[in-house]
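dumping this here so i dont lose it
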């Protein structure tokens, strides 16, 4: 582009030049059409405002590029999922302990009931 205009293109111009067809100015793909071409600024050779774009698709995050910010978001989501899994496993273990204790109490109650019935000379009715 510098050869065409004798000046360096803006980040927006460069993006459009590399992502639009020359013939009809249509976008080369859908994700290019969705990128916000408004650039917030340039700092030390880095362009801000074009790179990262995330959208929600049926309740889940969808990432359109692999920039460090999207990787960070994915890591944070993975950490949240690990924490939820740990909480579910802890709850499961607690419920298993309660079930074991309940079964133990039922066995003890059945033994005591059987002993009580023997002491009272209780005879179950014949069927």
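and the seq i came up w/
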């Amino acid at each position: 582009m510098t050869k065409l205009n004798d000046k360096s293109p803006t980040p927006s111009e460069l993006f459009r030049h590399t992502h639009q067809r020359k013939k009809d100015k249509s976008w080369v793909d859908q994700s290019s059409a969705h990128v916000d071409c408004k650039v917030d600024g340039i700092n030390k050779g880095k362009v801000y405002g074009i790179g990262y774009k995330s959208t929600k698709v049926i309740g889940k995050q969808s990432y359109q590029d692999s920039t460090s910010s999207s990787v960070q978001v994915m890591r944070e989501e993975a950490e949240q999922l690990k924490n939820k899994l740990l909480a579910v496993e802890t709850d499961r273990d607690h419920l298993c302990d309660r079930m074991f204790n309940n079964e133990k109490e039922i066995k003890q109650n059945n033994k005591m009931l059987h002993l009580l019935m023997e002491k009272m000379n209780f005879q179950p009715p014949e069927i």
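The chain has a mean pLDDT of 75.
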